[in-house]
């Protein structure tokens, strides 16, 4: 049985720390695609941590990880984008709430992959819309620059989610599925 998303333990805190550290440390790896925008493979980590540990862990790991990355790369936190990373991970983590979804025990079905895909698409574009509006309203960034960033980041993040995030969660569940039929001989 999966733990509740509200049950906090030492393992939960360590998982958030590891997720944030991994996301923060790997987010600087990317291919520039637009002004201040990159194709970042680290987006797959948001999908993995969200799906395996739930939306709360995903949100906090994404938020803290983005803050870490901002400090490493520029020394300034872009709060709208940091919150956006948390929001994307939280949406991707909604699959965790599905009753019969449990990749740790090898329980994953085609319907879960479809739900995960839908949550990911909504999370990616919802978080980018939030981040873009935050930049326009709070930070005073120009509309046309933000539109280019949202579209290019959205397409790049979708690509990473499709190519790395979804297959990683599916493969993890399938690996665990094959291990559930083992028996102990005495």
Automatic annotation (TrEMBL):
Gene3D superfamilies, alphabetized: 1.10.1760.20
Keywords, alphabetical: Membrane, Transmembrane, Transmembrane helix
Transmembrane stretches, start-end: 12-31, 43-65, 77-97, 117-140, 146-173
Pfam assignment, any one: ECF-ribofla_trS
GO cellular component term, pick one: membrane
The protein's name in its UniProt record: Energy-coupling factor transport system substrate-specific component
Organism whose genome encodes this protein: Fontibacillus solani
Lineage: Bacteria, Bacillati, Bacillota, Bacilli, Bacillales
């Amino acid at each position: 049985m999966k733990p509740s998303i509200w049950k906090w333990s030492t393992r939960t805190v360590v998982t958030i720390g590891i997720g944030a550290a991994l996301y923060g440390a790997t987010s600087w790896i990317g291919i520039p695609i637009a002004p201040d925008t990159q194709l970042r493979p680290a987006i797959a980590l948001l999908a993995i941590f969200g799906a395996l540990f739930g939306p709360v862990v995903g949100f906090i790991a994404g938020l803290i990880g983005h803050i870490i990355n901002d400090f490493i790369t520029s020394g300034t936190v872009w709060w709208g984008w940091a919150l956006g990373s948390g929001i994307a991970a939280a949406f991707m983590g909604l699959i965790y709430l599905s009753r019969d979804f449990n990749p740790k025990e090898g329980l994953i079905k085609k319907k879960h992959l479809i739900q995960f895909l839908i949550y990911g698409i909504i999370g990616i574009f919802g978080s980018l819309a939030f981040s873009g509006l935050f930049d326009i309203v709070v930070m005073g960034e120009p509309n046309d620059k933000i539109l280019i960033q949202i579209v290019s980041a959205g397409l790049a993040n979708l690509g990473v989610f499709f190519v790395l995030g979804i297959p990683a969660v599916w493969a993890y569940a399938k690996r665990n599925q094959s291990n559930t039929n083992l028996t102990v001989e005495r």
